Amino acid sequence: MQVDDIRVFIPSKDYETSKSFYQALGFKMDYVSEELTLFENGDCYFFLQRFYNHDLANNLVLQLSVLDINEAYQRIASLEGFAFKYKPIQEERWGKVILLWGPSGELWQITEFIASEQIA
To answer: Which of 35, 66, 81, 113 is in Cβ range 3.0-4.6 Å of 95 for a Cys bridge?
Structure first.
């Protein structure tokens, strides 16, 4: 089997708020249906769904690889009007990471890898 792509479906506690949050974070929104929205940034995509399950949302972890962690941190730190939390940039042996919990409790590990340590 040769895989071409993989896309996650993220639950939303408040669909409209989550859509606005991801747009403010820098993702382009594309309507799919009343229950599903596709978000894109570069060659990366995910679906936001009008569905919420507390256990799923609070155990969902996604890794987002970025080229400039400082730019990502500035964007996150400037977000206003959303119920979310984040931790400052942390140094790891394989790169730098920001932990970001979205409005539904989903956890994003926003990562800038050291070039030779990139995990595929």
So the answer is: 113
